[in-house]
Design goal:
mainly alpha, about 65% helix
Length: about 525
């Protein structure tokens, strides 16, 4: 009977995984074709510079140009570009985006363990990929499509090693694979790996506490989860220490970063009036209005509120009723959810201190969502009712709507967002003309870094003799201005005037029908 049930579930599970993979690739395709490959943002721009530095120097730590948090993504990028024969912008903006599909496999495997159900694994994976804050980083040209997948893979290996602790050969295999995955995570981004290690320590503390309060009958027995988490945390911390101080010297900047966080959080708590900042002001500035932001972010709020209610209710239930956690996977899910929720709450405090550019909460939410998704899916699968088919149809309709909203937010849909990432070829042509005709001067390119990142990703700013200015403070020293149709539309959207008078007293020096270059008319014989 058991074999027949497994034989039925296996094709269904394979079909679910294939469908999930195809869906994620469709989302990636939309992100690519929405802008035709003509888009860019600051993280992709930063990694483009880091990858070029490794290509030029043939070293993992090029002098003065190393990415301080790890070398894994840059090394992989150089290898893939050479192997596939593609350019850097093709890798970062097109080919690499499709690799987001690999996250489906470790996510589904982990969620099958945590929900104890193949269909629960599918549901949890779907919930994860309708989170805009998870989609945005993994669709960019950065390390996160690999580091997020590695985090899921590490958790899967951790759970599997617990389940096979009485089978020495299999246990050894899962154990070795776990530490290799942890080291891979460290090489891709040591800060994200440290957050994972901290979460493991917090999960250890929660699990130890839970075993003594929720399940007093087992307190005299050995707690395999606490033992395994203790070794995992200690050995992983040792690996992170070796990587930071001996293997990859640029990572030592973490010490200065942690000191900055401590100082600014302390200043925030002790002197709020002078130190507090509002890092979430971007909500009102980045979108056309607050209702639009709330709509496209609705998936984030749903998973946050629903999972929090379920976690608290489960905690209260275990504490005050006879129902206790029966499976190790259930305790692991509960403990890691609490750990990543605490890190998320702490990141909000750090954001308000202004220690890390006010975006740590955005970076910590995907980790939280990776544990919140199976928490909700496990509850849903335990509440299957007689009218399950009707509930399922309504649920999948809601998922489709959430997927649309999440994709619009993850791609910064221009009709809704004030932060535009796209550009057009005529804008680059105008910049190339300015570089060929102007030397050692600055050219204003827009209200933000939109065109600066575009040029940096495609060509590299080091190849240009001009300075591409976009900061308001640079305008006073700038006498050349690039004005395009997109710049005009951005100005109208942001209600900000152009810094140069178009059609007035300024000299037009270039016009390709889409982009124009203006030069301020000299007022004295000494002005250029």
């Amino acid at each position: 009977m058991r074999q027949s049930r497994l034989s039925i579930q296996r094709p269904a599970a394979q079909f679910d995984i294939l469908l999930l993979l195809m869906t994620v690739l469709v989302l990636a395709s939309y992100a690519i074709f929405r802008y035709g490959g003509y888009w860019g943002e600051t993280d992709t721009f930063a990694f483009a510079n880091a990858i070029r530095a490794i290509q030029t120097s043939a070293e993992l730590t090029p002098q003065g140009q190393s990415y301080p948090n790890g070398y894994g993504f840059q090394a992989l990028s150089v290898f893939m570009m050479s192997f596939l024969g593609i350019t850097l912008d093709q890798w970062l903006l097109v080919v690499g985006t499709f690799l987001v599909g690999w996250i489906v496999f470790p996510a589904w495997l982990l969620y099958r363990e945590l929900t104890a159900s193949p269909r629960g694994a599918t549901l949890a994976t779907v919930i994860l990929f309708v989170q805009a804050e998870f989609l945005f980083p993994v669709l960019r040209g950065s390390h996160e499509k690999f580091t997020r997948g590695l985090m899921l893979f590490c958790l899967f290996l951790l759970v599997r090693s617990l389940k096979t602790r009485y089978e020495p050969k299999r246990f050894a295999g899962w154990l070795i694979a776990f530490y290799l995955a942890v080291f891979g995570l460290i090489t891709f981004n040591s800060l994200l790996a440290i957050s994972f290690i901290v979460a493991t320590c917090l999960a250890l503390g929660l699990n130890w506490t839970a075993m003594r309060f929720f399940n007093r009958k087992r307190t005299k027995k050995a707690d395999p989860a606490s033992q395994r988490l203790t070794y995992a945390a200690l050995i992983s911390m040792g690996m992170a220490f070796l990587f930071t101080f001996y293997i990859y010297q640029p990572a030592i900047h973490h010490l200065d970063l942690f000191q900055s966080i401590w100082d600014k959080v302390a200043a925030l708590l002790l002197d709020v009036e002078e130190s507090a900042t509002d890092p979430y002001q971007v909500v009102s500035l980045g979108w056309i209005n607050l209702p639009t932001y709330l709509t496209v972010s609705i998936g984030n709020w749903i998973i946050l509120l629903v999972s929090a209610i379920l976690w608290v209710s489960k905690t209260v239930q275990w504490l005050f009723t006879d129902e206790k956690p029966r499976k190790i996977s259930e305790m692991i899910l509960w403990a890691f959810y609490g750990a990543f929720a605490f890190i998320g709450a702490l990141s909000v405090l750090i954001d308000f201190s202004g220690a890390i550019d006010g975006n740590l909460q955005v970076r910590s939410f995907p980790s939280f969502a990776m544990l919140a998704a199976p928490f909700i899916a496990r509850w849903v699968m335990s509440r299957r009712a007689t009218n399950w088919h009707r509930v399922t149809r309504l649920g999948w309709l809601a998922v489709m709507v959430l997927a649309v909203f999440a994709t619009l937010k993850a791609t910064n849909e221009p009709s809704l967002s004030n932060k535009w990432l796209f550009y057009f070829e005529p804008e680059l042509q105008a910049i190339e003309f300015a570089d060929a005709t102007l030397e050692d001067t600055a050219v204003w390119t827009g209200y933000d870094e939109r065109l600066v990142t575009a040029v940096g990703i495609r060509e590299g700013l080091g190849n240009y003799d001009i300075t591409l200015a976009h900061d308001v403070r640079q305008i006073e020293d700038t006498r050349n201005f690039l004005v395009t149709d997109i710049t005009n539309q951005r100005g109208q959207r942001l209600a900000r005037p152009l810094p140069v008078e178009v059609g007035g007293d300024s000299l037009i020096t270039y016009d390709n029908g889409f982009a124009e270059l203006y030069h301020l008319r000299p007022r004295t014989p000494y002005e250029p």
